[in-house]
Design brief:
The complex is a heterodimer of chains A (233) and B (247). With 233 residues, chain A is mainly alpha-helical. Chain A is built from ten helices and no strands. The longest helix of chain A is centred in the middle third of the chain and has 38 residues. The mean pLDDT of chain A is 94. Chain B has 247 residues and is of the alpha/beta class. Chain B has a single domain, classed as Rossmann fold (3-Layer(aba) Sandwich), CATH 3.40.50. Chain B contains eight helices and eleven strands. In chain B, a hairpin with a 2-residue loop joins strand 5 and strand 6. In chain B, helix 2 packs parallel to helix 4 and helix 4 runs parallel beside helix 5. The N and C termini of chain B lie close together (11 Å). The chains are: A mainly alpha (233), B alpha/beta (247). Chains A and B meet through helix 5 and helix 6 of A and strand 7 of B.
Chain lengths: 233, 247
């Protein structure tokens, strides 16, 4: 039975099944959009936290690090309450839409990107701080320099965020509702199809998800290897 | 053992009306520990002022205070009759461990070059530090000597009036030391005032015009180089020159 399911799963993948393709495409769209907004929020948060000094900085860093471990279902619940009809943003009618899923993923992965960016930038800032002060480099030139010189490490952080987003299930199922042709992504489809006993589709999606994870990890390794070889990390 | 009143022979050093370095009652306390004690130094001498002393004497802290990287707890620092805060733009510092950006050699220089610096100037400077042909190499993959030469070239590119050097030749090969010393001599001939930390007595003799000798965060002696090496005024400096272990 399991062998048949695997055979059918590979057939679905090789034949480029339209249903699988639709789910895959939506998953990538949602996760890449969430990643875009998380980068836009997370990198400035991590960088500014690393290169500025203010009272309560340590507490902020502790909170940020703690947020990396946010339980997805709790995030899903909070975003649900926010977007539900009786919630503060209910009038926008975003619940059970891909936008709601993007919002949930942004909440989940922004702390990851910000916290990892903070670690990278903090190390770099300790190394460069005296030099920049000595050369009289203004903040407007220092920040792009930090971002550029940390590029190989930051790519790793960003890809880690993408990995978390694409494999997330708890939050998106709550705020997306797993609606066919509208909010069904790979993880929620796997959960549904497994519960229905449709192992072939679940396995096919699982294989695709694993392949994506492998590609992301291979990309991280390649980027880091290149950076290390040139002493750019 | 330790003289509370530092020996000074600066009157013989006068070469210009405005002192290059004028430090008055400099104190530095960090985390409740007083690290520099009431240092007062006036140097009218052009060229290279060597800062010497055993490890932990406060040489690097003193240099960092001069450069504005550390704010003294009390006291004043004036360079060429101006408060040092207003002179930081005309200063450049070479650190003991070269801090290089994660990019290639030429981009490290371009980063520090003032706007409008002609590319030929950068090329000439690269040749002077014997790094021509290595323009596109990742800077952090250069040898220790090459990295320090690049760091010095980058500092010189900013056309400083004051060049502060924190043991730039420590653990370098003789060839790199020679290149760096030549560049420093050339810079001083062009009017750059250098303040140079070194443990190398031979180097201090070759380069130094006057010597500031620190011990346990205090000024033990400030004399012209010749006096320092022929008849040191303080017991600590004498012991240091005699090769005794000075703690």
């Amino acid at each position: 039975m399991l062998g048949d399911a695997f055979t059918e799963a590979f057939t679905l993948i090789v034949s480029v099944n339209p249903e699988l393709l639709e789910i895959l495409w939506l998953s990538i769209q949602v996760s890449l959009t969430a990643l875009f907004f998380s980068i836009a929020l997370g990198l400035p948060i991590g960088t500014s936290l690393a290169i500025t000094e203010f009272p309560g900085k340590k507490a902020c860093v502790t909170i940020l690090n703690s947020l990396m471990g946010l339980p997805p279902v709790v995030v899903g619940l909070l975003v649900y309450l926010l977007l539900s009809r009786s919630g503060p943003l209910g009038v926008l009618g975003l619940l059970y839409t891909p936008t709601a899923m993007v919002i949930a993923q942004v909440v989940l992965i922004t702390p990851i990107i910000a916290a990892l960016a903070y670690q990278v930038m903090d190390d770099l800032h300790r190394e460069y701080r005296d030099l920049f002060q000595s050369l009289g480099i203004p903040l407007t030139k220092a920040v792009p320099t930090y971002l550029w010189d940390a590029r190989y490490s930051l790519v790793t952080s960003v890809l880690a965020g993408f990995g978390r987003a694409i494999s997330e299930v708890g939050a998106v199922i709550i705020v997306g509702g797993n609606i066919d042709h509208l909010t069904r992504v790979m993880t929620t489809a796997i959960a549904l199809e497994t519960s229905k006993g449709e192992l072939a589709i679940a396995l096919a999606l699982g294989i695709i998800l694993l392949t994506l994870a492998l590609i992301v990890n291979a990309a991280v390794t390649t980027v880091r290897t290149f950076g290390l070889r040139n002493a750019y990390v | 053992m330790f003289k509370s009143e530092p020996m000074s022979n600066t009157s013989a050093l006068s070469a210009t009306n405005a002192p290059y370095i004028e430090v008055n009652n400099l104190n530095l306390t960090i985390g409740g520990n007083q690290l520099l004690h009431d240092i007062s130094v006036t140097s009218f001498t052009p060229g290279v002022t060597m800062v010497m002393g055993p490890n932990g004497a406060g040489k690097s802290l003193f240099l960092r205070c001069l450069h504005g990287l550390l704010i003294p707890t009390s006291g004043s620092i004036r360079l060429l009759n101006k408060p040092h805060e207003s002179t930081t733009a005309s200063q450049s510092m070479v650190f003991q461990k070269a801090v290089l950006l994660r990019r290639n050699v030429i981009k490290n220089l371009e980063f520090a070059a003032p706007n409008g610096t002609p590319p030929t100037e950068i090329t000439e400077l690269l040749a002077k530090v014997h790094l021509n042909g290595k323009e596109l190499q990742p800077a952090r993959l250069l040898s220790g000597g090459e990295q320090q030469r690049l760091a010095l070239a980058r500092s010189l590119l900013t056309k400083p009036r004051f060049l502060l050097l924190d043991e730039p030749t420590a653990s370098l090969d003789p060839a790199s030391v020679l290149i760096i010393e030549r560049l420093i001599s050339e810079a001083t001939e062009q009017g750059v005032k250098c303040i140079f930390i070194s443990h190398d007595l031979g180097q201090a003799k070759r380069l130094g015009a006057d010597i500031i000798f620190l011990h346990q965060g205090r000024l033990a002696e400030h004399t012209d180089a010749e006096t320092f090496f022929t008849s040191p005024q303080s017991r600590e400096a004498k012991a240091y020159l005699d090769g005794e272990i000075v703690l």
